[in-house]
Design brief:
By secondary structure, the protein is of the alpha/beta class.
Length: about 350
């Protein structure tokens, strides 16, 4: 089978690419190496097996059509994207061109040249907005949503906030509509927080990896200055380790019941953490003191997002296997190896 992975040198893309190579399938990777760390992931993938690499950009329709016509992929994992809220606010045109136009280019190329392809798309929980119309209880370490204490289902009203929310939401809806109108086999995953090996985190994207890095820096040098956080640290996300992300995509790609469907995806309430709770966990694991200073809340930051994964469990037969404690151990080990 032929697999095309856009953004295949990113965090999730490279993990999926490694699995395709492990299974002995035919792999094609499209990535312009725009993302920090993607060149490192490309070098790593080349140690695992042979594949065709396209140094192309999804914003360029000629690039995308050339690849789709040439490869005629059975499966497309569309992961190429602009993933930072702060970047979207600073440069909304770039954000839209990558997330909105880039996704449309992939979809329309498939419609014209490879309509049998299955497309799985990495969307985001940010399509739901900031949830300010819900009620939140504040405890010592976290917020809890009173209406949905066990997680948010797919039926929650969409409410695009920020250029990032708009561009990803636009792409999200195009995927669903191309199934309705043209019969293209699409699946949309609205992801919460993902983490694991090959995630080259930055201060504005990949918070688990970023704060694990800060903890390791503190372990190496107790005089390391305090880092910063936005807000009070009680905001909550559920965590999903990379191997569970891979198993999700591999299960869903052949699940006909999932085509044309959208799924909220995360580790679930049992694998949720606030920033403060993550800091306590890292302090215990590494015997360090996490020292930080507070910045104002980020624009449109949700106090809580935890995915209700019931639909994915029932329709796809998938659920996470790596708990947050083991996942963070794995993350720390990978970072130390770097």
């Amino acid at each position: 089978m032929k697999y095309l992975i856009t953004g295949g040198c990113g965090f999730v893309g490279s993990n999926l690419a490694a699995e395709v190579l492990r299974q002995g399938e035919e792999l094609f990777v499209l990535d312009n190496l725009f993302r920090h760390g993607s060149d490192n992931n490309l070098r790593w993938l080349r140690t695992l097996g042979d594949f065709k690499y396209y140094p192309y950009d999804t914003r360029n329709i000629n690039d995308v059509e050339t690849v789709i016509k040439e490869v005629q992929p059975d499966y497309i994992f569309h992961l190429a994207g602009q993933v930072a809220m702060t970047t979207s606010i600073a440069n909304p045109r770039l954000d839209f061109e990558i997330n909105g136009l880039g996704t449309f280019n992939v979809l329309d190329s498939v419609r014209k040249y490879s309509p049998h392809s299955v497309i799985l798309y990495s969307s985001t929980n940010k399509v739901f907005g900031d949830f300010e119309y819900f009620h939140f209880t504040e405890s010592e370490t976290r917020y809890t949503c009173e209406e949905y204490p066990k997680g948010f289902p797919e039926s929650i009203t969409l409410d695009f906030h920020s250029p990032y929310g708009c561009s990803k939401g636009c792409a999200d809806q195009y995927l669903l509509d191309f199934h309705r109108i043209y019969g293209i086999k699409t699946v949309v995953f609205r992801h919460s927080s993902m983490f694991g090996a090959n995630q080259h985190a930055t201060f504005d994207q990949g918070w688990i990896g970023w704060f694990c890095t800060k903890a390791l820096e503190k372990k190496a040098d107790q005089n390391t200055p305090p880092f910063t956080i936005s807000g009070n640290g009680k905001q909550v996300r559920d965590l999903l380790y990379s191997s569970d992300v891979v198993s999700l995509y591999m299960k869903a790609k052949d699940c006909e019941a999932a085509y044309g469907q959208v799924f909220n995806i995360g580790g679930g309430i049992d694998n949720s953490l606030s920033l403060l709770e993550l800091f306590k966990l890292l302090e215990r694991k590494l015997d360090v003191k996490m020292e930080y200073t507070q910045l104002p809340w980020r624009e449109s930051d949700q106090k809580v997002f935890v995915a209700d994964i019931t639909k994915a469990r029932e329709l796809i037969g998938w659920q996470p296997k790596v708990d947050k404690d083991q996942g963070i151990d794995n993350m720390l080990n990978w970072l130390q190896q770097q």
